[in-house]
Write a structure and sequence with these properties.
Blueprint (H helix, E strand, L loop, with lengths): L2 E9 L3 H10 L6 E5 L7 H4 L3 E2 L9 H25 L5 E2 L3 E5 L2 H18 L4 E5 H7 L11 E5 L3 E3 L1 H14 L3 E4 L2 E7 L2 E6 L2 E10 L5 H4 L9 E11 L13 E3 L5 E3 L14 H14 L8 E12 L5 E5 L2 E8 L7 H6 L2 H4 L21
Parallel strand pairs: 1-2, 1-12, 2-9, 12-18
Antiparallel strand pairs: 3-8, 4-8, 5-7, 6-7, 10-11, 11-12, 13-15, 13-16, 14-15, 17-18
Helix pairs in contact: 1-6, 3-6
Bound molecules: flavin-adenine dinucleotide.
Flavin-adenine dinucleotide (FAD) binds next to helix 1, strand 2, helix 2, strand 13 and strand 16.
Amino acid sequence: MATHAQDILIVGGGITGAALAYGLAGSGRRITVLDRQTPTNRASRTNVGLIWVQSKFLHLPDYARWGFLSSREYPALVSELEALTGLRIPVQFRGGLIPVLSEAEYRQRGEYIDKLREVLGEYRGGMIERAELDALLPGIRFGREVTGAAWCEEDGVIDPLALLRAFRAALPRKGVELLDRDVLDVQPQDGGYRVVTDNGIYEGGTLILAAGLANRRFARFALPSLPVYPDLGQVLLVERMPYVMPIPVLGATQSFGGTVILGFRHENAGHRMTIEQKGVSGEGQWAMRVWPELAGKRVIRAWTGLRVMPNDSMAIYSRLPGHANAYLVNTHSAVTMAAAHARLLPPFLLGGNLPETARGMTLQRFGFTC
Ligand SMILES: Cc1cc2nc3c(=O)[nH]c(=O)nc-3n(C[C@H](O)[C@H](O)[C@H](O)COP(=O)(O)OP(=O)(O)OC[C@H]3O[C@@H](n4cnc5c(N)ncnc54)[C@H](O)[C@@H]3O)c2cc1C
């Protein structure tokens, strides 16, 4: 087999690998991304596209902050990608909404947000009353139980396939090699790394593992068991309707094409990828209470995807134990985090420190030395 030498090898070219490669391009390093679509590692191609930072991670404030940083980097990233590739990336940076169905839920969410605001020191959002929700999305007739919504101006929604396509189109333009290869094995060799694929062997001084769940296999040379598991998401797609949701609603999100994506359940079900009624019917019923018009519409598709979930829910950005030049990147909201990955992580991947907010996101928190 032919051997190819590069400065940086990135294994995995989903949304994470592509964002990292894009961010590293221009560093003067020779970079190759090795990616082949697999049946299980499909999160980058099955997700909703929410840039979602609100109402989460009270117990992980730095991770919450990291999400806000990413969302603030997004507009510049999208403009840059569009200018470079000539591709249009449908996106809305107009906030996001979580409807609530009772006064009690309204209060409960409000209390959570108040605590978040206190812990973070800043939070650009809060609870809004029903009348304000109706005014924000006048094209939707919300159900009578809807009492209001949690609102945050820093959320957004992007067409995730258009984003991935743009990243991947940008790579060769920025001098990065993106290759369709099935990666079979990754091993350290002579102070660098050797990646065996179905079509050639690739050698690099620096290795970045960004292959989603497959990172568990590829990191084994340094880490017998990576604390990351598959988290099943099940999605129902409702037929096309006129576009009425310029501000995304979590759990019943209208796509740019007019279809509506339902489903927000998280399930630790191993590698099962089948749809099960109990996993989607509750979400469907919730969505019809929120937006009763959905009850008269057809479900036209359903799919599942495995999220890449670190055991404690926080991103892992880390060198591998015993390997100063081997990095691992795994996170569950990699669409939301794509702008941070492209614009804030590269200095770390080139040998520097993690940005202050992400300092606690290495494997050290699981007891590894790295
Ligand atoms: C139903 C669902 C909804 C979601 N909604 C959102 C959302 O709204 N917002 C959000 O921020 N996140 C969302 N997510 C999470 C998000 O999709 C993931 O965090 C993200 O896709 C992870 O990207 P990744 O590139 O790290 O991993 P992956 O998407 O798994 O990509 C890994 C890449 O590595 C490649 N690879 C794997 N093995 C090999 C091999 N042997 N050889 C070569 N290549 C290989 C794969 O083909 C793939 O291209 C959702 C996920 C699901 C399942």
